[in-house]
């Protein structure tokens, strides 16, 4: 319900949320995480995933402990700051993208 209110507020005055009236500028494109398709991921070969392919969200949520290392799934690949990260699930991917 709360998200519906936020959507309606945005739709009433969308120009308030984008430049030049937005209170903060949008970050440059390379500073925004981007989901990668399997074909995009393959094109980046031989570039390796960060954290040796373990899910960065699970690791961060687990206080960066060894026990929190969970292998990522290549269906949930992200490129951020010219680095590749592999998340465990769509839920973790969405959390990374926020």
UniProtKB/TrEMBL annotation:
One GO MF term attached to the UniProt entry: kinase activity
Highest taxon, organism lineage: Eukaryota
Sorted UniProt keywords: Kinase, Transferase
Protein's name according to its UniProt entry: Adenylate kinase 9
Species name: Phyllostomus discolor (pale spear-nosed bat)
Lineage: Eukaryota, Metazoa, Chordata, Craniata, Vertebrata
